[in-house]
Amino acid sequence: MDLFRRMFDAAVASAQPANCLPPHLPVPPRGRTIVVGAGKASAEMARVLEQHYPAPVEGLVVTRYGHGAPTTSVEIVEAGHPVPDSNGERAARRILDMVGGLTADDLVICLLSGGGSALLPLPAPGLTLADKQAVTSALLGAGATIAEINCVRRHLSAIKGGRLAQAARPARLLTLAISDVPGDDPLVIASGPTVSDPTSFADARAAIARYGVELPGPVRHHLEMGLDQLAEPWGDYVLVARPADALAAAAAVADQAGYKVVSLGDAVEGEAREVALHHATSAKGFLAGGEKVALVSGGELTVTITGDGIGGPSHEYVLALMLACEGNSRLSGMACDTDGIDGATDAAGAWFDAGTLALAAGLDPLDALGRNDSGSFWAALNRQVVSGPTRTNVNDVRVILVDPR
């Protein structure tokens, strides 16, 4: 567990705003500096910006409940995630108001990180927050990818898909973002409130149809009648931290511990239990070759919920991985979400080693997997990784240690 925890901590540290944000702060403008933003890291990003920016700032950022940070001039609002709530709706409306009416002498700094999409749930005209909540919940439960969910969100929004950028004109706009998405696509990070959206209403309808999600009447009408309007690009966009950076930091710890590091990719997507089976096969291959290896991967996995349990993609991945390793004492694994919260749990993730199956006497791991109850299983074994909110988010960090000796 010590090595797993050191790798996780190194990954999180690489993406802490205090470490990655200051080098990218701009020169102050002649006019005002307005700071807005959203995401699990946005409050900590605002706190760090206040400490290092050499001019007065004002503004508002919205973060998940429990992920706030102490600031002096940038207001912090906490709101619902992953299902949006009225706090997020009000904050999004206030952010749009704050960036309106500025001049070319002013600067808007937009701080974005993972979770920002749910935290800026300002519905398009004719829709309600309840409509967006219903669609988000249904897509999450159906196992839709974050890219698919955010495509739908953008087409139901009054602020996403470049609409915030358009509202800020003619002020200068700089977006500083911590990526939590496979491929680091600015359009997917927080559903791209400051970048142009090339996707269409037809793309959003296709995502809905793919999962057979039932839509509220106003949402169905909005998606059927909506006209695509590509917002003109406006402003600069800088990624200050990426999942690849976090994996590199974790890999350096494993390398120092004497493991050959093999990357399985920093943008892995798919059903958690299915990805676990593929990764177990890779681990067994290295074990057969007699190599001492650390297999690392990142990205964002999904879970199609069919049971009534408690868990998250990282918890479920580790459970499926342990079962696929079939009790082999030379294989161990960990998966954690770098924001410190995995799914419907209070833990970042879980881990197992050679002694875990013996501890599980009296528990049924297959039943836990079938009921999507991996969180309860790992909690009962005291095999969770508990960090609390990390106030950053560069997606998941997964590690499989192969030790032939």
Could you describe the 3D structure shown?
The chain has 405 residues and is an alpha/beta fold. The chain has 2 domains: 31-241, 3-Layer(aba) Sandwich (Rossmann fold), CATH 3.40.50; 244-402, glycerate kinase, domain 1. Helix content is 38%, strand content 19%. It is built from 16 helices and 14 strands. The strands form 3 sheets. A 6-stranded parallel sheet has the order 3-2-1-4-5-6, sandwiched between helices. Strand 1 (33-38), helix 3 and strand 2 form a beta-alpha-beta unit. Helix 1 runs antiparallel to helix 11, helix 7 packs across helix 9 (201-210) and helix 12 (272-288) runs parallel beside helix 13 (313-325). The longest helix is centred in the C-terminal third of the chain and has 17 residues, at 272-288. The mean pLDDT is 94.
List the helices and strands and how they pair.
Elements: H1 2-14, H2 17-20, E1 33-38, H3 42-52, E2 58-64, E3 74-79, H4 86-99, E4 107-112, H5 116-119, H6 129-142, H7 146-154, H8 163-168, E5 172-178, H9 201-210, H10 217-225, E6 236-241, H11 243-256, E7 260-263, E8 268-271, H12 272-288, E9 293-297, E10 299-302, H13 313-325, E11 331-337, E12 349-352, H14 356-359, H15 365-370, H16 374-380, E13 384-385, E14 396-402
Parallel strand pairs: 1-2, 1-4, 2-3, 4-5, 5-6, 7-9, 8-10
Antiparallel strand pairs: 9-14, 11-12, 11-14, 12-13
Helix pairs in contact: 1-11, 7-9, 12-13
